[in-house]
Amino acid sequence: QDVAALEYRAPQLAAASLAFAFPAPPAGARLLDVACGTGLVARELHRRGFRCLDGVDGSAGMLERARSTGLYRQLRPCVLGREPLPAPAEHYDAVTVVGALGEGQVPSAAVPELLRVTKPGGFLCLTTRSNPSNLRYKAELEAALEGLERQGAWRKVLAQEVERWERATSEEESTQGTGYISGVVYIYRKCPVPPLEEG
Fold first, then answer.
1. What would the pLDDT profile of 176-192 be if each residue is shown by its tens digit?
2. Within 10 A of 84 (CB to CB), how many other CB atoms are there?
3. In this structure, what DSSP letter does residue 132 have?
């Protein structure tokens, strides 16, 4: 109900961006939805052809709701930042973290753990808000993302700022008095990126 009232668009925006970047038909691609919540992102990914979805979340209640969607192959408890992801290295073709990269949620220091479970050439789709109370976190997050890019761990495919991310809950948080806050979708591709196949 809250996300509907807030016109929360991150799940649609993230799924559309990932589907756009994804080179192969997504049906067979293994995807991990981190901080999956009630399954909002899974719903959007499913609509775009992703079928092999696993999810993790720190809340048992959220996992229960996610399970009731029938969209996930596997759901496990995990509080990213406090514990490693329950997955082997280089296991997933794509990893999403939508709506959990923010002040008081997943620390930016946990980003390398997302990379660990992603296959070389796999995609990572991350989102964060650009509202005033999240700007310090956003700057930290972007420093972590850029640091990993400088190290050659991944390559940026997309960073898309979105004006009307969701409704603001206060005047202070509103972007230039629009009544909305803005946000950003990032897509990265883990290195080494496999060469294009001949033919």
1. 778 888 999 999 999 99
2. 11
3. G
